[in-house]
Amino acid sequence: MNAAATTTHTNCLRCGRTLTSAKSQATGYGPTCARHIRRAAVELTDYKPHQITSARELIEDGAIIPLRSVVFIAVSTDGTETYRTAPTGCTCPAGLKGSRCYHQLAARMLLAA
Hints:
Largest sheet: 4 strands, antiparallel
Strand content: 5-15%
Shape: globular
Order of helices and strands: HHHEEEEHH
Number of strands: 4
Structural class: alpha+beta
């Protein structure tokens, strides 16, 4: 799930500003937004390390997009499904069981940033 390595972004996936450096274009985030997202991930220690990694990949790949103020659309790992997710819940199989999923974490990270 590392499409970010082959995708070039012209605008920041978080704030929409134009990206000028090659590194920012490759990651999809400007330096300030990237720093905010990293800091938000550190503050969210109630998730397992693999969930944090998956949430970061979801954000880096641009596979989570805002729908409403706190609601996002997230793409599944294999790219075949989309889920509505928010910091408090998700329509993915894990979220429907009441578990915390990495989609929720990605939503929390984006909102905290």
